[in-house]
Amino acid sequence: xxxxxxxxxxxACAAISCSAAGDRGATTTEGDMIAVARLxxxxxxxxxxxxxxxxxxxxxxxxxxxPPDEPAIVGRRAIADWYRNLYDALQIDITHEPLEIDVFGDxxxxxxxxxxxxxxxxxGESIPFDNKYLMVLIKRPEGSLQIWRAVFNRNHPLP
Length: 159
Description:
Elements: H1 2-15, H2 30-49, H3 52-57, E1 64-66, E2 73-74, H4 76-89, E3 90-104, E4 107-120, E5 127-139, E6 145-154
Helix pairs in contact: 1-2
């Protein structure tokens, strides 16, 4: 399943147009697109496994996450607390779909959609979601990527 999803993500990334960002100095390569697709597939797996320790390896100390309908979450420690509460309450099944990847030096601006289900651990009734997101990723000196900024919200209003 993971290999099939990874293949689909890599195919989608290979087809991504780098938009007009090239006119603004973006230098996105196929390697960058593959790295982002791998990061998103890893993030999907981490969410499904509720692996907070592995998630935090993707989050720098000065990260900021901006979830819908609540204040920004500033700093790795606060993000850890937020995800701990989320993982305690919900089982997450998510698939990120990269739509745009623009690289500017050691920063990557990444836009996409994320769909899946949230299943409350107390009731077991899945709730579908259809979100959009914008992330600013940073390239670490050893080549790994981290999620420095993340904004996400619904594509459609709640009923």
